[in-house]
Amino acid sequence: MPQATPDSPAGAAFAAVDLGASSGRVVLGTVAGEGLTLEEVHRFPNRPVRIPGAGGTLHWDVLGLYRGVLDGLCAAGTRAGRLASVGIDTWAVDFGVLDADGALLGNPVHYRDARTDGMEAEVAAALPAQELYAHTGLQHLPFNTVYQLCAARRSAQWPAARQLLLIPDLLSYWLTGTRGTEVTNASTTQLIDPRTRDWSRPVADALGIDVSLFPPLRHPGDPAGELLPGTVSATERHGPVPVTAVGSHDTASAVVGVPAAGDGFAYIATGTWSLVGMELDTPVLTEESRRANFTNELGVDGTVRYLRNVMGLWLLQECLREWEADGSRQHLPQLLGRAAKVPMLRSVVDAGDPRFLAPGGMVGRIAEACRRTGQPVPRDPAETTRCVLDSLALAHSAAVADAQRLSRREVRTVHIVGGGVHNELLCQLTADACGLPVVAGPAEAAAYGNILVQARAAGALHGDLATLRTVLGQALPLRQYEPAGDQTPWEGAAARVRGSSSTA
């Protein structure tokens, strides 16, 4: 792959701000010819904060995150000399509220907070679930932005609200002074019509939500302002630094960063969540799709991310935190080695069960789910881990199968990207459960997708998504897992999960 320093005429340097639910990072990407290299220049924790009183609201520490972004961009500017652009992607659905002066009215509330309890019934009374899905195509999740908005407008802050900014748009506003709403993330609000790629006025009117509170929509590749003078001093000696709208929902960027050759692929963007689906040209808005809890989120270049949210590695992350807190900290590579020796499919749970959504007590909740369904209760961390990974592989397989059936498109290869590519056991179990080859990599898919969109907007790369993915496929070391063994045990375990879900 061609190499160049960011200062050289052959190379252009781009900074990707990539924030996840547990950590954030700033990645420096250098494009030289048709080659792309990445370097993580700064990583920082994302630690939510629960505030006592008023029910103990769980907030994002968005000011701490912004400080991490500034430090990371300073490091990127120092390292690169000149940045061609900055792009921001984060998790979805959450937002900040601004007053008439453009000041933030309190730290944004975390989607795992309980403030949306009861809001589903309120929304359904105004707009039945079937009608809501027909307009927006978004899967039912109890923390979708529409439910958060219904809860937020009951707060004492709401009368002062003059504008709403989704998290990546809020950070972009602080960096540039320019406000906008990037469309891939806006599509997770359950207020966007995926056919028109614009606000759904029927939904907004039925729910009494004023979409003019959101600034104008912008699309991946659009300019989003320039870094304000003094914001990041290390970037200023070479002139203004533009900020470029990317797929600001991290999954939208991650799907751009799937190094697939042609079509016929499914993707699993792994991390705290597993986002399992396919890339389509048009949404699937059927009642069957709604009942299968599939979502039609918008992607880059007019695409649709047709996918299902699966609880993901959150299950294992919470168990690891719990074991560390009680003094039995587990070394993950060794734990996965022990889990690989546990008999397969001994106990499985429904990885989509909302009872696993809240933080805390995950080991006990998994044990209780096994007990409730008459399965062996995991006796130690290795058995709990194997239960989690078998259950995730089953959920991945079910989502891939349903995506094919509902979209009437065939999948020949499954691509796993994100943090889960390092979990070899999960990758192999997913191949076994799906009965399809799995290609793992890159772990940094969101950062790659972020930088690819910036580079194309700046003219450093050219072509459609397939062309951009070819750049990745030629540059990255990827690992392929072939399905092994008989599918019958997996089919039996899937039936157990379906049975436990129907009786829960």
Automatic annotation (TrEMBL):
Domain of life according to the entry: Bacteria
Domain Carbohydrate kinase FGGY C-terminal: 266-458
Start and end residues of each stretch annotated as Disordered: 483-504
Transmembrane regions listed in the UniProt entry: none
Pfam families per UniProt: FGGY_C, FGGY_N
Keywords, ordered alphabetically: ATP-binding, Disulfide bond, Kinase, Nucleotide-binding, Rhamnose metabolism, Transferase
InterPro entries documented for this protein: ATPase_NBD (IPR043129), FGGY_C (IPR018485), FGGY_N (IPR018484), Rhamnulokinase (IPR013449)
Keyword presence, Nucleotide-binding: yes
Keyword tRNA processing included in the entry's annotation: no
CC per GO annotation: cytosol
Any Gene Ontology biological process: rhamnose catabolic process
Name of the protein in its database record: Rhamnulokinase
Domain Carbohydrate kinase FGGY N-terminal: 17-257
MF GO annotations: ATP binding; glycerol kinase activity; rhamnulokinase activity
Family: Belongs to the FGGY kinase family.
